[in-house]
Write a structure and sequence with these properties.
Blueprint (H helix, E strand, L loop, with lengths): L1 H17 L5 H44 L6
Amino acid sequence: MQKEKLNAEIKAFYIAERGEEIGMIELIQLLDLFEEKMAPIIYNKALDDTKKWFTQMLDNIDSDYYALYKNED
């Protein structure tokens, strides 16, 4: 499903931007290149974003924990 959508978007891009159609072999090669070269970059960025989010959640848990303390007066 995702690859079909990408195929359609690449075809539309080639027609709109270059005024030409892209062949199926070229399209597959282009998608394979993107997958090989960009997938690790996108994956690592997702990991970094997840770590940042998780760290923020842990900071919130820590502050929420201490907010539960009762005044000992």
